[in-house]
Amino acid sequence: MDQLQNYLFIAAALFSLGLFAVITRRNAVAVLMGVELILNSANVNFLAFSRFGGMNFNGHVFALFVIIMAAAEAAVALAIIINLYNNYQSINVDEASQLKR
Hints:
Order of helices and strands: HHH
Helix content: over 70%
Strand content: under 5%
Radius of gyration: 17 Å
Largest sheet: none
CATH topology: Helix Hairpins
Number of helices: 3
Number of strands: 0
């Protein structure tokens, strides 16, 4: 039986794991993966509410926009990570504050 609560539980678990990864990791790639988990949890919510809210395509359209935005965010973030590695030979996000100078 598909129930809305099952999808919401999976989305909450994905969001919690993503938030934990963003808060605790120092590696920029791991932080980026945490952000992707958070965005995927939003996609699960959009699609679950679309399915259980009358089968309209609004949730699908929003999920598609989130996927597009995540791809653009990943490209920009990876460019920043490469710049950070070229300047400091490390992808530690604590050293990103030194880029201001």
